[in-house]
Amino acid sequence: MPLRGERLAMAVDAIEVGRRLADRAGLVLARAEDGAVSYVACDPVEQVSALDPEPALPRSATAYGEVPRWFGLLPYECLRGLEGDEHLDLRAAPQVSSPLWLRYEAVVRIGENVEIIAESAESAGRLAALLERPPQTREVSLSLRSSIELPAQHAERVRRALSEIERGNVYEVNLARRFELNVSGSALDLLAAFEREGTMPHAMALEWQGLSVVAVSPELCLRLDADGALLTSPIKGTRPRHPDPLEDARLAAELDADPKERAELTMIIDVERNDFGRVAELGSVYLSEAPHVVALPGLFHRVASVAARVSPKLTRTQLLCAVLPSGSVTGAPKRRAMQLIAELEPHRRGLYTGAVGFIRRDGGLELKMAIRTLSVRNGVGHYFAGGGIVADSIPEREVEETLWKAERLQSLVGSPGLFR
To answer: What is the reported pTM?
Structure first.
């Protein structure tokens, strides 16, 4: 049974805790509970590439059950079966295409204090000794590569999607454009740079065998509790924040009243309800939180929450196959929307619009939507930004929305004009 290590006498700052482990393999930081708690770990003891890395791990209440046992990535690419076996994709392979799960024997929990949760006194002691070292920081540098996609190309993509909507082939489709960058710096230091204006509720950073992933996600993709409770919180609708409080409030009110944004979220709520209905106990699916505007660093979003309950016999693999990739980042109907994404987007998504997160020691899981996510291999970074296209979408405004969602990236590059 996991044991709780003694509280550590250090600042309650997950980034600084992680920087003490900067040179360790598999360093990971994940925020949970809407950012109120963070977890840091290093030196994984096992790696698995399956949707569920430990099918025998039961869902059951246990001491410290909320603490992660596995941290991992579930790329969009590994969950494209809905498109049909006949689909042949000739686009270049993405940076990430298979699931990646890493198991850790000891995890640092950073909440009101800093403490170690570990499977043995030995693993707790090893981690505690590493945390006595001084923090290490690597300089972060980002610059655009010459292959940036032009805004006009995304606008044309939106127009083609609108023609599909007009024909009745799809009601909504999420389309994205990719920014390619030269990147240096660790995943942890990149996360710190992205979070300069404030922490994000579902952020995560992971570094493993040449791959760096930084997600400053605002969206809960999926949470499964040990008692079978399910939750997803889709986001649709975006406006930039403004330093003037009056203008800031006006933008929030404009977002809340916009009929296009309201329709977009309503359709995705129906998709999420349908996906939950495939695995949930009869009559248990409901809207647990009505659509509303949330204020996050840099952006406003409209969000809602759909909840359900599943049978104890349902496996995590069955659940993941039923609900991923999320309708929030594909569209409606989901199958045709995914086919259209493959037809219209010039680059395979890789991790983007998949999920990142962890499986807890109680057998539950918490997955964050892999949006506002940078993946890096061999110094080359990929960052996608997109949005939902519905009948009254305006191509030029959809292009502008991708820039809002890449605003933090633009600020780190230092030359925002290059994105236009």
So the answer is: 0.94
